[in-house]
Amino acid sequence: MSISSSSGLPLGLDDKALNDLTASLSSQQLVWLSGYLYGRATDATSTSAAAAPAQQALSAAVATPAPAPAVAPPRLTILYGSQTGNSKKIALQTAEAARQRGLEPTVRDMNEYPTRALASEQQLLVITSTQGEGEPPIAAEDLHKFLLGPRAPKLPALRYSVLALGDKSYVQFCQTGIEFDERLAALGAQRLTERVDCDVAYQESAAEWADRVLDVLAQEVATATPQTGPSTGATLAQAAASGSNGGSQADISAFRVAAPAATPAVQHDETPIEATLLEKIQLNGRGSAKETYHLEFSLEGSGLQYEPGDALMVQPHNRPELVADVLQAGRFEASTPVKFKGEELDLTTALTERLELSVLTRDVLERYAALAPQHPTLHEALAGTPQLQAFLYGRDVVDLLTQFPADLSAQQLATVLRPLPARAYSIASSLSAYPDEVHLTVSAVRYETNGRQKHGACSVYQADHLNIGDTARVWVDRSEYFKLPQDPATDIIMVGPGTGVAPFRAFVQERAETGATGRNWLVFGNPEFTTDFLYQTEWQQHLKQGTLSRLDLAFSRDQAEKIYVQHRLLEQAPQVFKWLEDGAHFYVCGDKTRMAADVRKALLTIIQQQSGQDSEYAAEYLKQLKKQRRYLEDVY
């Protein structure tokens, strides 16, 4: 039972005290405070022993006018556009780090983001990858088109920052992120921090960007939160909640939960292991123009896990012959010490294990050109995209040092060159079928340009320099989307010529081991049946067992007219369309430039013909397949 004065107010409070207390509060804050005090009063009735201390604390708190409660921080939206899942992973990790800083983020997939929502955003973090030469990921296509189009709204109230993921081996490096960043600024939005462009090894740069932008936001929230003066007792919330006698000093920011100490926003979840090579088999027969290897690595004791659709990252070493050519072309001493990322190494070790020699990229050329002003050709190549593409194609570090000599020190060379990145290979096995193992299907890349033989850094490292019993540094690159359907009864169509068949070997193995009832249809192609039918015995066994429902083959050189996988799809147009109409998922793996484009074109033709609709209908049909994650590509 409460005790009141004649005016109906609790003892110890009068009209003047309440007016002093609430004078600076908004209507919204008054509603909040009334609800809070009502809740405290309800709690107080449950035990009379707690009532007196609570009332004493409340009286002490109102002796000095209290500052206004903290206003909620502006909304924070983290928007990601992801093809393989890296952008999504960073977005989720950034959101968790934001919560630890007392922020309240919302994570949204661009694939499901309504474009009209952009106009109401207050604080926006954009994380997006770029596909190939400047294309947005499928998930970002609609928002990208809207933002760069005439219907995009002015955004003067928006503050934002962009993290762009890409690969410097492409000339249009991080183009999608650049376009998002520049367009938002053109629409009047203000940058919270400058855009960061990440190469293949994105983790460190992504972590620095996330920490920087989140620290800015958290500091703004802390600065905007009103503080009590040193003579003010406990806040109303603390006084009533603690039941103290008002002797403690506190901050009105206690109205919101204090954030724990921040941790790095983006965690490094891949730790390389030394995997022993158990088996290496050349899959092509004698006389083939191809050189394809099946490799099996041991994962025993590593704890490394993967799923069908994931990739294995393999860290190569550069060929000794290429290292020797670089030393000779630049007239460097092999044992000269250089510093690389805080570590001192001899130049030979740095060139062998740490620095990219096989591929030139824009940033490498820019740094080299700055040290070689006597070569105007380098600056002309950097003037535009077509010139740069033509210049970089087929050139390596030896070509650069030989054709455009410069007086570089060993340390300058180490600073100019790009760190040697690991290469990703689609995993060709299922852990269910091969516990403690991971299999790859690798095509050795060898070609000639600029009068010299060139080699794929990682493919030839595995083909020529890894022997059974040797170890390689590997880790798993997890794919978010290129995965089997969640429903094991769903049918799948797999188009994988050449080494593009690798993930589908894993898919069929997994479905066989788990007893999935969905049908599996593989369309495979290569030059010749007799020499290039990769995993022929396994596919025939799956057909016999019923774990492969259909196999269509396209051996392009076995007849006068070349036949490719897209031709086989067109031949089976009614069945392809029926499978799609019944809910099948459609997968493509392999060459991005020609094969994947030809398959998309064939599929559009199939949809148009079989539906009896026009080309616009077919384009929208395929677009919806992509948005539903039923049309998925793993192309390179």
Report what the structure shows.
This protein is of the alpha/beta class. Among the domains are: 15-70 and 225-255, no CATH class; 76-223, Flavodoxin domain (Rossmann fold); 492-635, Nucleotide-binding domain of ferredoxin-NADP reductase (FNR) module (Rossmann fold), CATH 3.40.50.80. The chain contains 23 helices and 21 strands. The strands form 5 sheets. Strands 1, 2, 3, 4, 5 and 6 form a 6-stranded parallel sheet that branches. A 6-stranded antiparallel sheet has the order 12-9-16-7-8-13, with helices on one face. The protein has a 5-stranded parallel sheet with strand order 19-18-17-20-21, with helices on both faces. Helix 9 packs parallel to helix 14 (397-403). The longest helix is centred in the middle third of the chain and has 22 residues, at 203-224. The radius of gyration is 31 Å and the shape is globular. The model is unreliable at 1-13, 26-32, 38-55, 57-64 and 228-263 (pLDDT under 50).
If you average the pLDDT, what whole number results?
A: 86
* Rg calc: 31 Å
Low-confidence parts: 1-13, 26-32, 38-55, 57-64, 228-263
Strand content: 15-25%
Ends apart, CA distance between termini = 75 Å
Main beta-sheet annotation: 6 strands, parallel
What's the β-strand tally?
21
Principal-axis shape equals globular
Task: Name the helicity range.
Answer: 25-40%
By CATH's scheme, which homologous superfamily of the domain at 76-223 applies? Flavodoxin domain
What class would the helix/strand composition place it in? alpha/beta
Report the oligomer: single chain
**CATH class assignment of the domain at 76-223:** Alpha Beta
